[in-house]
Amino acid sequence: MTIGIKELVFICVALLTTVPCLIVVFSRNILYSAFALFFTFLGTSGLYFFLDAEFLGITQVVVYIGGVSVLLLFAILLTKNINEIGKTNMMSAGRMALVSVGALALLGSFGYALSGTVWFHKDDGTYPATTINGLGDLLLGKYLLPFEVVSLLLLAVLVGSLVIARRSVK
Amino acid sequence: MFNMELTGITSYLIVSFILFLAGLLTVVSKRNIIGIFMGIELILNSAALNFAAFSRLTAHNLEGQMVSLFVIVLAAAEAAIALALLLAVYKRYHDISADNLTTLRL
């Protein structure tokens, strides 16, 4: 295994993805958690670029960083008392201990599965140089019905979230 | 044990496993609903990353990326609805701690 510049960048991006996760889990300040989540999304986008999935990477930036993170910050600042922000994201120690045991079991089974698996490689597949053309063909060909269903879902979400969150008018 | 290159499928699986575990711990242990919601986002993110990694590194086609795309869209829809519900709950109870919201009555 040789460590070149590509591997170094990959390690940095993987660390950018995984280290803020721990802040999301263990921080007591929910604003810190939100900003850590922002960096996790950024790192995931970088990993998509490493996978030659540039459209997914850009979508990740636009949807998660531009949309979900901002929405999250809005929700935090609209619902919480800012002067006690230091203890807005408390954890339940009992449940944490319980799920830690489960997480350790999962970790063990994951390592076991990973060490014994030889991954199947599909021989006839050819990964295209640019993915956007292929994704467009798939989206308007094979996946046309899910595409239309998702567009209906997004319309329903748009209307529904406005109805749920509106101020009640007397 | 792992005779692999560093940017192979195993590294992506490990990264997304860490994302999943962090999401799981967050969902179960947080008291704040927004914190729980962050955990859900982490879990969805790890699933999408797995789909993209398998699509690129073992299947060599774009079908897995398609699934990732749908996961991202559904996560965004879920985020919008969840946060709207959160605002409605906060207006009613002035509290968004999951342990205190024990009644279904409006």
Write the layout of secondary structure elements.
The complex is a heterodimer of chains A (170) and B (106).
Chain A: H1 5-26, H2 30-50, H3 54-79, H4 93-116, H5 131-140, H6 144-165
Helix pairs in contact in A: 1-2, 2-3
Chain B: H1 9-29, H2 33-59, H3 63-93
Helix pairs in contact in B: 1-2, 2-3
Q: Brief description of this entry?
A:
The complex is a heterodimer of chains A (170) and B (106). Chain A has 170 residues and is mainly alpha-helical.
Write a structural description.
The longest helix of chain A is centred in the middle third of the chain and has 26 residues. Chain A is mostly helical. The model of chain A has no long low-confidence stretch (mean pLDDT 86). Chain A folds into 2 domains: 109 residues, Up-down Bundle (Four Helix Bundle (Hemerythrin (Met), subunit A)); 40 residues. Chain B has 106 residues and is mainly α. Chain B has a single domain, classed as Helix Hairpins. Helices cover 75% and strands 0% of the residues of chain B. Chain B contains 3 helices and no strands. Chain B starts with 8 loop residues before the first helix and ends in a 13-residue tail after the last helix. Chains A and B meet through α1, α2, α3, α4 and α5 of A and α1, α2 and α3 of B.
